[in-house]
Design a protein that fits this description.
165 residues; alpha+beta; seven-stranded mixed sheet; globular
Length: 165
């Protein structure tokens, strides 16, 4: 089992992991079967990370991907110092310290790339993720009320951020 930077050879495996995550949890953006498996879009995402502008870490085990952390930095100059974080870990690999390891690597990348602000949103009900983010130095900045409709229920999200020194 290893955490590593993504590469172009990971396209199909990355798509499979995203679809698996959609089936396994209600805490990701897409419902099962909703995600469009846009191979070109995934290839562009992987390329932008491989070329160094953004970060995309993956968890690999047994020749499959089981988790990821993505940090997409802002493009306009006024927000180039910030990065938006998305992460997901498949159920069989949760509570093994992988999330903590992802966020430690994120911090290293942020320092090297002069990122001053890391930000994300998380469903308020996702207590495990909120705990991980708080332990990683993120703080709640506000609540995005009724931001998602999950299983017929309106769901709030926390805005969270970490300011880098």
């Amino acid at each position: 089992m290893q955490i590593r930077n993504v590469n172009q050879n990971d396209t199909d495996n990355f798509i499979d992991m995203q679809l698996r995550l959609d089936r396994e949890t209600d805490f990701m953006m897409y419902e099962p079967g909703e995600r469009k498996t846009d191979r070109d879009g995934v290839e562009n995402l992987l390329r932008s990370a491989e070329e160094g502008g953004n970060l995309l870490l993956v968890l690999e085990d047994k020749d499959k991907l089981w988790g990821f952390l993505s940090a997409q930095r802002g493009n306009p100059n006024r927000i180039r110092h910030s990065a938006y974080i998305v992460t997901g870990i498949c159920k069989d690999y949760r509570r093994m310290g992988i999330g903590k390891a992802f966020f430690q690597e994120l911090d290293k990348w942020a320092v090297l790339n002069q990122i001053k602000r890391l930000e994300l949103t998380v469903m308020c009900a996702n207590e495990a993720a909120v705990s991980l983010y708080e332990k990683s130095g993120f703080v709640k900045e506000g609540i995005k009320k009724n931001s998602m409709l999950v299983n017929g229920q309106l769901t709030d999200e926390f805005y969270m951020a970490k300011l880098m020194e």
